[in-house]
Automatic annotation (TrEMBL):
SUPFAM superfamilies: C-terminal effector domain of the bipartite response regulators (SSF46894). This is HTH luxR-type domain-containing protein. CDD domains: LuxR_C_like (cd06170). Gene3D superfamilies: 3.40.50.2300. InterPro entries: Sig_transdc_resp-reg_C-effctor, Tscrpt_reg_LuxR_C, WalR-like. Residues 41-111 form the HTH luxR-type domain. It comes from Homoserinibacter gongjuensis. Keywords: DNA-binding, Transcription, Transcription regulation. The keyword tRNA-binding does not apply. The keyword Transcription regulation applies.
Length: 111
């Protein structure tokens, strides 16, 4: 079994080597294909800033925006901006039928 991208096969020797490995029962995958597959398993929580992670952790503890602001010594508006950024980075769009805050906390707890 093998999969090579035709524009990335540099020489006939590379292709021959791949065919020989497959014929011997091996597997050949183009490194670019592997990189794309691994990239798809990206953890959306990894894209959060340290402050967003703090805010999300406090959300997971059941704190309100006002309580989060007080604990982190920031304004409620700053908490709201962080919460909005968290929703965006986690791909939680405002559908009107889902509670994004709960979904964000569930994502945090499943890490």
């Amino acid at each position: 079994m093998g999969y090579l991208l035709k524009d990335r096969v540099a020489s006939l020797d590379d292709l021959t080597d791949a065919v020989d490995r497959i014929a011997a029962g091996g597997t050949v995958l183009d490194p670019e294909v592997v990189a794309q597959l691994i990239g798809r398993r990206h953890d959306p929580l990894a894209s959060l800033t340290p402050r967003e992670r703090e805010v999300l952790q406090l959300m997971a503890e059941g704190r309100s925006n006002a309580a989060i602001a007080q604990q982190l010594f920031i304004g409620v508006g700053a908490v709201e901006k962080n919460v909005t950024a968290i929703f965006g980075k986690l791909g939680l769009e405002d559908s009107g039928s889902d509670h994004r805050r709960v979904l964000a906390v569930v994502a945090w707890l499943q890490r």
